[in-house]
Design brief:
By secondary structure, this protein is α+β, with helices and mostly antiparallel strands. It is 30% helix and 32% strand. The strands form eleven sheets. Strands 25-24-23-31-26 form a five-stranded mixed beta sheet, with helices on one face. The chain has a four-stranded mixed beta sheet with strand order 27-28-29-30. α2 crosses α3 and α9 packs across α10. It is elongated.
Length: 479
């Protein structure tokens, strides 16, 4: 049996269908119109932002953040600050993300038509900057509290104290809370705060007790000994070891700086160590020791430096004087073996095989050139320094040469002398040289008419020395 639909019913159905079409169209138009704008009912920190584009919203957030001021009235003194000055900034982009979050879903868009929503700004807080601002504000609007302190006096020896003082400060946490509150509200506000009396943490009595303890530590005798000499620590040394550290409970800790006291111990010990001097033994081609060219000297090296430092610290920490003895390990010398030319053991200088050296014999009044133990030039007659200006004796080395030079100096009587064009000059130490003396007629003598200390030679012999001797060649002058 078929149901008959009345004309009235047909009209109702048609009306409902038309309404649905209208609602769907309206909803679609609503969704499209708010696709990139803030939905209805959206508020930011209490103020409507409906219909704003993201760019407009970010601009409003930044403007409100910049305009937000916090005024603190503390004991009749007003101080104004901005959020940024107090270490707080508003993250405009993150805040805009939160405002536009409902735009992401169709359901939340429809829901915005029936309810309002208030978004809280997203804040970024520089905790150190905020704490610093709160501390500075408290200090500038009140009277800073002053702890008593222990100081080393100008004499570098005596510890003294400074006096404590009661202060008045506002509550730093209240300052921080006020800044954060106004940042969340994005609006300016005023706060009345009262400074409160603050007592010093370190009292005069605590500082005085610590100073007495420090001075008592400096007064203790500290001595190190190497078994022969004693090395006391000065008052300045001991005062530099003392550490003064305030504790959280208001007391002052007095202790010994282990690194500084250990450094003093090491310095004293190092000064008493004896550096080993290694020797040299000359040997011939057969490996036989023919002479000791340089004697070796035994050294000593301390072996208890760390133990002394620990014992010193233990004694002074216990309030006791300290005396410690340095102990040593002997360090025997070693010997370098130096090969010399065969036959060189009989000469004044034991040269290595082939080594160039010049023998100045002030007794024979000659100069001889050697390579190892072999004579390669001379002996050449010469004239040494006069008795009042003798030639130096010792082992030297050629360090400077001139083919020709004007020599200048001072005579024994104080008058100056000038010797132009002196040929073939070979210096071996200071102003002492081997050179030609064309002004002399004979050689191989010494006396009052001798030189100012140089070795005067025939020009040809001086040239032989000049040409043969290298810079660094050993020169031995002896009687």
């Amino acid at each position: 049996m078929m149901m008959r639909i009345s004309t009235k019913m047909k009209v109702v159905i048609a009306s409902v269908a038309a309404l649905l079409v209208v609602l769907v169209g309206a909803t679609a138009a609503y969704a499209i119109s708010y696709a990139d704008r803030v939905l209805p009912g959206m508020r930011l920190a209490g103020e409507s932002v409906t219909g704003m584009s993201r760019e407009e919203l970010v601009s409003v957030i930044e403007s409100r953040a910049a305009d937000t001021k916090i005024t603190f009235n503390i004991n009749g003194t007003a101080t104004e600050t901005s959020l940024s000055q107090a270490g707080v900034t508003v993250d405009a982009q993150s805040t805009a993300d939160a405002v536009f979050a409902p735009n992401a879903g169709f359901g939340s868009k429809i829901g915005a038509l029936f309810r309002s929503q208030d978004v809280t700004p997203v804040l970024k807080t520089d905790e150190k900057a905020l704490a610093s601002f709160a501390t500075e504000l408290a200090a500038t609007t009140g009277t800073p509290v002053t702890d008593a302190t222990v100081l080393l006096g100008e004499d570098g020896v005596t510890f003294t104290t400074t006096q404590s003082a009661v202060g008045s400060l506002v509550d730093e946490e209240a300052v921080k809370k006020a800044v954060m509150t106004q940042g969340m509200a994005l609006t300016s506000g005023s706060y009345a705060l009262q400074a409160r009396e603050v007592s010093p943490k370190v009292t005069n009595e605590a500082a005085f007790t610590a100073a007495e303890s420090a001075n008592a530590m400096v007064a203790l005798d500290v001595v190190l000994s190497d078994g022969v000499e004693v090395f006391p620590a000065s008052a300045v040394d001991k005062a530099s070891w003392v550490k003064i550290e305030p504790n959280n409970d208001g007391t002052v800790k007095v202790s010994l700086d282990a690194e500084k006291s250990a450094a003093w111990v090491k310095r004293i010990v190092d000064e008493t160590n004896i550096e080993v001097v290694n020797g040299i033994r000359n040997i011939n081609s057969y490996g036989t020791v023919v002479a000791v060219a340089k004697e070796g000297v035994a050294g000593r090296s301390a072996n208890n430096t760390d133990a002394l430092a620990r014992a010193l610290m233990t004694a002074l920490t216990a309030g006791q004087a300290y005396s410690g003895t340095i102990t040593y390990d002997d360090v025997p010398p070693t010997f370098e073996e130096r090969l010399i030319a065969d036959g060189a053991e009989k000469l004044i200088y034991q040269a290595a095989p082939g080594e160039k050296w010049i023998d100045i014999d002030l007794t024979a009044i000659t100069i001889t050139l050697y390579e190892g133990a072999t004579v390669v030039g001379g002996p050449f007659a010469m004239v040494p320094g006069a008795p009042q200006t003798p030639t130096v004796q010792g082992i030297y080395h050629v360090y400077l040469k001139y083919p020709s030079q004007t020599m200048r100096g001072t005579n024994v009587d104080g008058t100056p002398y000038v010797a132009p064009n002196v040929p073939w000059v070979t210096y071996f130490t200071g102003s002492y040289a081997i050179h030609g003396a064309p002004w002399l007629q004979s050689f191989g003598w010494k006396g009052d008419e001798g030189s100012h200390g140089c070795l005067n030679m025939p020009v040809s012999a001086a040239k032989r020395v000049f040409d043969w001797a290298d810079i660094g060649t050993t020169v031995v002058s002896h009687e």
